[in-house]
Design brief:
The structure is a homodimer of 175-residue chains.
Chain A: H1 2-11, H2 18-25, H3 29-35, H4 39-44, H5 47-60, H6 67-72, H7 75-82, H8 86-97, H9 100-123, H10 128-151, H11 158-173
Helix pairs in contact in A: 1-2, 1-8, 5-7, 5-9, 8-10, 9-10, 10-11
Chain lengths: 175, 175
């Protein structure tokens, strides 16, 4: 939904109406509402896909995988999901950064993601404490790498940044 | 503010007015508002003290402390802060659990805590990535231990539960 993002960037998220988004995108409002329940969905509609892909990867990890290994099994499909979305992600990040309500929404979506991954770990027989810690660690690794990715120019860097962020987590918590 | 918590428990958070809280506590509304800006403050007013104590401990950690060691320097003063507050914490947790808006507020407060700890680490010369990862890890350790603490009977267990949660984090992220 690049048209909507462009408008958010030009005139602010709050000030932009669905009618303006639809007009810019060459859609009727009715068509807009077929894809998005409201304008916030333009920004957060991808989170369902992110949760689904990550949870599936956790569930599909080999039975002998440690909790963190099961969590990081999600990094490949997640990086794949964001391939081709660098421009969108960068503009989206700027819109969210400019709006406290959207920043709160983003935090809550990340917590929901951690909750879903944690639940998938518990399904694997991991204790609740270890599941919460491993899921939150994975989501923080993702969050740090994502913030790095939208700040820099190379669209292909995301997978590498995820690995760097994971290595940094291991280094920070070692010893 | 046990009177307020009791009312939240009896009749629900949404349905309870400041006027009822003040009456139950034997206060005028004016006196209530001298201590709390609104009824939500009864639940979240302690978060400023928590942030302050933890950030001070991070800043005061020895210069050679690793990022996570600087973060975990906050666990002693934080455990000390919650001494004598077990009953309050348990009732508060039940009120928050029952209300989605309060659960979101709690998450945001925890994120603010992580942000403040991360900023204190950056002040110490830690890179932003390592600071975010270490701060979030510390807050998750706290969150897991806190959830365990309010679920069980022993008021004195919090410090031990913090250590167990930290050990579990190290175990989960090792290897």
């Amino acid at each position: 939904m690049v048209a909507a993002l462009a408008l958010f960037g030009e005139q602010g998220y709050q000030a932009t109406t669905v009618s303006e988004i639809a007009e810019r995108a060459g859609l009727t409002q009715r068509t807009f509402f077929r894809y998005f329940s409201d304008k916030r969905e333009v920004l957060f509609g991808g989170s369902g896909e992110l949760v689904r892909l990550w949870v599936e990867a956790v569930a599909a990890a080999p039975p002998e995988a440690t909790p963190l290994a099961a969590v990081t099994a999600g990094l490949d499909p997640v990086a794949e999901m964001f391939r081709g979305r660098h421009d969108f992600a960068r503009t989206r990040a700027a819109v969210i950064e400019a709006n406290p309500e959207l920043r709160e929404r983003e935090l809550i979506k990340l917590q929901n993601l951690a909750g879903a991954i944690g639940a998938a770990l518990v399904e694997r027989g991991v204790t609740v404490g270890a599941a919460v810690l491993a899921a939150q660690a994975g989501v923080t690794v993702f969050h740090v790498a994502f913030a790095d990715w939208v700040r820099q120019e190379d669209p292909a860097a995301f997978r590498r940044l995820l690995d760097e962020s994971l290595a940094e987590l291991r280094s920070v918590t070692a010893g």
